[in-house]
Amino acid sequence: xxxxxxxxxxxxxxxxxxxxxxxxxxxxxxxxxxxxxxxxxxxxxxxxxxxxxxxxxxxxxxxxxxxxxxxxxxxxxxxxxxxxxxxxxxxxxxxxxxxxxxxxxxxxxxxxxxxxxxxxxxxxxxxxxxxxxxxxxxxxxxxxxxxxxxxxxxxxxxxxxxxxxxxxxxxxxx
Length: 174
Fold this sequence. Notes:
Blueprint: E1 5-12, E2 15-22, H1 25-37, E3 46-51, E4 54-58, E5 62-63, H2 66-69, H3 72-87, E6 90-91, E7 100-102, E8 108-110, E9 117-118, E10 122-124, H4 125-130, H5 139-142, E11 145-147, H6 150-166
Antiparallel strand pairs: 1-2, 2-4, 3-4, 5-7, 6-9, 7-8, 10-11
């Protein structure tokens, strides 16, 4: 259960899927808009059907194992997925290991676009820090807003990989 939604695994028309219930109508509208904008990008779930505050998404993956996160071809494919999001003028803003899945074929699947925004949108600095696997910094930084940029997503990915490999947190300020 995330901060803004509740997620369940399910089946829809004999296909494994994820049912996502948003707590916020605005969050739901934003995620639906962006997922439609990302339509056709390999490595991002598609909307199978939607209703008010509710999404059914597929395909479904499993949590990417630490060994997969060490695999160069998996990481290259993941960076390509993230790059495709950036080319469509958006930032994920929540890249962390729990949002990186693997398909049955071993391909990356980037999930949870509830925090995603258009490149250049103002986001709280703290939200970008939380995207690095629950890192907490001082409340003074929380009041600072920055413009979302692709570099933030890539730094969050690098930080998540560091945490996975070294089993310790790292904090940086960009």
